[in-house]
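Tokens for histidine kinase. Go.
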Amino acid sequence: MPIRAIEDIDKLRRINEALVSRVERSMEQQGNAFSLFQTAINLETRVRTRTEELRATLRHLEQSNLELVAAKESAEQANLSKTRFLAAASHDVLQPLNAAHLSISALAELQTGEEGRKLVRQVERSLETMEDLLRTLLDISKLDAGVVQPEIGDVPLEPLFSSLKSDFQPWAANKGLKLRFRPTHAVVRSDRTLLRRILQNIISNAIRYTRTGGVLVGMRYRGPILRIDIVDTGRGISNDQRHAVFEEFNRGGAAADTDLAGGLGLGLAIVRRMVDALGHRVDFSSQLGRGTVFHVDVPLAIGPHSEHAAVANEVEKPRGYGLFGTKVLLIENDAAVLEAMKVLLERWRCDVRAATATEEALDALGDTGWVPDIIIADQHLDHGDLGTSTIAEARDYLQRQVPALLITADASDPLARLARSSGIELMRKPVKPAQLRALLAHLLA
């Protein structure tokens, strides 16, 4: 029906409203579709932007990782170079330090006045402090680099305690302190050298920071573990210093209680590194004003260990210091060390023949009427010769197992094993003359 034929106005109005409503709905639908279209475009733009930002971030992270890897490799190389440098430098520095020790010892015997002896003692203390610092720095470097390989074996404690008591008794007595070691026949599983250094550093600290009373070294059995206790009556350690005491150059704020020479604050830092290298455990308990107890837990040796086994490993005490007339073949390529050692031995009334390499040493033995009582050699000699090989050739030439002593700044474990297997005593440079004299007397006994 045509619209003009509709006479009902209300009906016409309703039709009009329906048409308007339909048009409006159609327009709304179109508007919504357009809005969705715009929204989709905006979302795509935002996703593209975020994706680019993420890619840029990933590229930055990759670059950072590459830089970190390069920095890590550089740090590792620097650490390795530092270790090699310290090892090489220590040999070069210890050589003149060794010559100085020997020369000072010879000079001390020439002094007749108290003033001269006092000056000699001051120089000796300075040299010992320098030696301790150099050895400590080298030890820390080697431990940090992981180049120290412990030689684990059965270690009787009684001879170890006797050696430590001999070293520290004069110092403790000079301070008016009592130093006691509980007798024991215990045998533990450890590296003898490293374990001795651990106990040495702790005992040294105990004596240094104790004014009155004394230091006691004892032990307690805890199943398969032996706990070694180092007890002192010193000033104690506060709780806020509990972890700091194992850090480098930390002296616990106790400088006023130390000896005049003081300490370097490196002893316990080395203890921690050595304990970790051995797989042992170290801890302590302390009360301010009452003292400190350090505990070192070491595994006991497995199997029967008689009292005689411990005694058999103890180094015999020297029977005497008489070296008069002792024939010494001295092999050393450093001119200053050679001269200082020769002067010192001659002061002890030894008959010395010197050489700098294997060929010279064999030439010195050409006189069949002169047979050395002992051979003293450095490891690194002229012409690339090695002291261990030179000693072996000299023994072959003489057709006898002449006692031999290798004095070297080379602290490597392979050299120690080689010397031990060859029946050669080993002493590290710089040499303390008193220890050298005692060891020579022991080897000649």
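The chain has four domains: 18-70, 74-145, 153-312, 327-444.
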